[in-house]
Amino acid sequence: MTSTTYDKPLPIIDPGTRPFWDAAREHRLSIPQCNACGKHHFYPRELCPHCHSDDLQWTDVSGQGEVYSYTIARKPAGPVFAADVPYIIAMIQLDEGPRMLTNLVVPDVEAVRIGDRVAVSFDDVTEEVTLPKFTVVGA
To answer: Which domain of life is it from (predicted)?
Structure first.
């Protein structure tokens, strides 16, 4: 685990998102899948956005995907992010279909391209919270 002091905002974990955060703490990427139509979706919600069924289950996914879109933050989103600039906020298209907004952790923000293959990594920021982030794979 990382240090016990983490100054950045933490997610609010509620009953609807707890399975996601529990899986992340175990270094697994788990997202809802609809039992009616078979499609995965993200962000977690009560109804499938594809067919509106409420017959959902949490399933582990590969954590593989590609950069769909991104931006380079050159100014911090607040003082606690100052040491991180420049950093990448990316929309990742998971191989299973859904898109996920996350951080892309790379040594050179200028080298990132749309379509780059990525894999999930996990940042244990507190004992209770692990943040899924992504890294570029197979240069």
So the answer is: Bacteria
Q: Which of 111, 20, 118, 137 is nearest to 68 (CA)?
A: 118
Within a domain: residue 6? no
Angle at the Cα of 139 from the Cα atoms of 92 and 83, rounded to 5 degrees: 65
Strand 87-94 and strand 117-124: the pairing is unpaired
Does residue 12 lie within any of the structural domains? no
Q: Quote the pLDDT of residue 138.
A: 78
How many domains would you assign to the chain?
Answer: 1
Query: What is the rounded distance in angstroms from the CA atom of residue 124 to the CA atom of residue 54?
Result: 31
* Residue position matching structure tokens 């529990």: 22
pLDDT of 2 reads 43
Residue 64 sits in which domain range?
18-136
Q: The domain spanning residue 110 has which CATH number? A: 2.40.50.840
Structure tokens belonging to residue 22: 């529990």
Q: What is the pLDDT of residues 71-89, one digit of tens each?
A: 999 999 999 999 999 999 9
